[in-house]
Amino acid sequence: MNDFKQDDMRVLIVDDENLQREILKIAIPWEEHGFAVCGEARDGAQALELCRSLKPDIILVDVNMPVLNGLNLIEKLKEEGAACRAVIISGHDEFAYARRAITLGVEDYLLKPIDEDELLSLMLRIRSEILEKKQADHSLLQLRHQTEEDYRSLRSAFLRKVAHRVLAEDEILSQTEYFTLNRVRSVAAAVIQIERQDGNGESGGELSAFRIAVANVLTELFQTEQECILFDDRPDRFGVALVTAQGEADEASIIERFHAAQQYLQNEMRIGVSIGIGDSVQRMSEFACSYEHANEARKHGKVFHNSRVSRYEKHIDEPVCFTLTTAQRTEFKLNMKTGNQNAVYEQIKGILCENALQRANLKSLQNTVFSFISAMNEAVHEYRREVDFLTFSYQEMAHKFDGFHSTGEMADWLCQLASQCIAEIGACCGISAHIEKAKQIILEQYGNCDLRLEQIAREVYLNENYLSTKFAQTTGMSIVEYLTFVRLNKAKELLDAHTLSAAEVAEKVGYLDPNYFSKCFKKEFGISPHQYLQLNSRTKPK
Q: What's the average model confidence in pLDDT over 458-480?
């Protein structure tokens, strides 16, 4: 009875006579015409329970039954809002029954014994009507969803344009009325930035999934009286309009809910976000100012206080002019020219992290960065060197600053630029001293299994690619080849001493895997370390 297809029209048979139920079950080929008898009941009360659980599309109901008769059953189902269609099957041709059946919206009133052709024709008609209604309902639902989606999309575009000062005041006023935002008591902006995860950028698919997660979390946390309207800003960023229709905005509650959203996204979903909250304004024409303040608060809190949720405060946006002093600029350029990368690093970190932090203002920090980049340009240009890595468009620099999480990250980025500048200057002044320093580091640290090009380049204050190229040109071998050469020759000296096993020698010269050491040794000298030990033990003087 329950073995039916998903798209079958479900039929429930209700009759107190078992024989009548069996006759109805075989009266027409149900399955052949797209029907499935999903159940049967012997009285109205049992049928009512089955209707609640089985959700039939059509019920065939006898009138006279114990406990609850057929007409009362139909009346109960209508009261409960059941969508099933009812057909009365009765042995009594009484006008009172028929009249009440009509008032209850019964499809038809059939008399026993059932005419099978008449029943089939009726069932097919009902089935067709049900399918037409479902299709109409589906189309209407799709239209409603599309209309709502179009409305949200238009509202998102409107808020984005307002936030970025694209619309004139009269356009803002007219569209504010269209989107029913003209009756709000106050509105505040917030900016939600999806941060990179584990130092890597996200793909489009990941960002799309993250955006859905952020939207769902915020929808859960904000109530209708404090409406939280999200709008698209860019792929990794949301804008938010916090609309207060009545009373005053509860600032503490807003901040608390944003904190809860940030913590949940970070801890439960592993999605990092930084959030800035602007000040409340009275008109939508002032929303752009609140939005700009929100973004400044977000960046300021993230960089200076490692805070993921920050509220705008006036001192964040106060104009500050800070650049390197003449003495600092001269010292910085001199250290770059002499290749004193360590001193350059210390100067960048000292000035950037200490002086800028004392001012606790993002604009002063940006001015400091620009001042350092300007000094680097001057130092490189003195040697008539043209470099592209110091040239940034406004958008590129804005994006770069937006990606920093701390003053330490800014300092590291500046140090990397300075290192490239020193390499360019070194190309004019000679590279031999740096190559000799790299070779000395290898001779001193060959036993360190973690010794890599990155570390060597850092210690000689040169860019990795530049050091690698110049080292190969000067010595005739790459840094990796030179490191291998030193390690294997040192291994040979240790084997000659006959005090250590081959495995111990491998560890001494920086090889964690004795098998790999043996392979490298044999490639260099033609025999394995064990063979070399055996050969030396036979030739060693007694």
A: 83
